[in-house]
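Could someone model uridine-5'-diphosphate with this protein?
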Amino acid sequence: MGYAMSRRRQIYEGKAKILYEGPEPGTIIQYFKDDATAFNGEKRSTISGKGVLNNRISEHLFLLLGRIGIPTHFIKRLNMREQLVREVEILPIEVVIRNVVAGSLAKRLGLEEGTALNRTIIEFYYKNDKLGDPMITAEHIAAFGWATEDELHDIEELSVRINDFLQGLFAGINIRLVDFKLEFGRLWDGEFSRVVLADEISPDGCRLWDSDTNEKLDKDRFRRDLGGEVEAYQEVARRLRILPEDGTPQVLNLETHRKAKAKSKE
Ligand code: UDP
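Reply:
Sure, complex below.
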């Protein structure tokens, strides 16, 4: 571990990530761990290589979302396990977007997993581990001031756009985006702030099913003891074409070749 790395101040350690102070004020480094937890931390393990994959997958999705005009905290990936992001005030709300019945929705309402919803459902949960992230409504968010009315409006609008984009993106690689969780943050600029997409988007917080076989390519492999977690995450990365072994011979790609050459001369 380098000198600068070990000297950095740790700001926070979560279940799957560590946050460090960034190189400049207003920046943060997100370090992706291999740790996996489920059922509010009751089930724990490490999945070797998961952090590297989530870092890459999340980088890729945040960059694509940025390109379609979704404001995000993402600045750049630094290395295999770290990315530089803007410091934001994370709103204490988990936003879950559902396209297909699964998980807690199936359980709570006695519905069959895999049933397509005839409209997308957006749910809110209060981010509080001690309470087990209870489900809340917009009323609670307003009453307790967890977000302003304008912020909540932006969150809902952004969530719909993100869902539309990601559903299409995944459909194009034969994956059903069943449901996923988003977190948003308040990015301050002087006395004003705006809501931006924060945290990560990876198979840790999404349900991704193969469109043909319904095979699970996400954290349910861990939650439900199915095994093959890393292989599944790798398969998602492979289909997104962000692994070197995606079938494209790298040296035969002129653009890659040119860039590699330019880089080696730096
Ligand atoms: N999710 C998450 N973090 C949480 C709770 C849920 O990332 O603390 C994700 C989960 O991976 C799934 C979606 O949100 O893609 C909906 O999860 P659900 O409410 O069905 O809860 P679960 O079955 O995971 O307990």
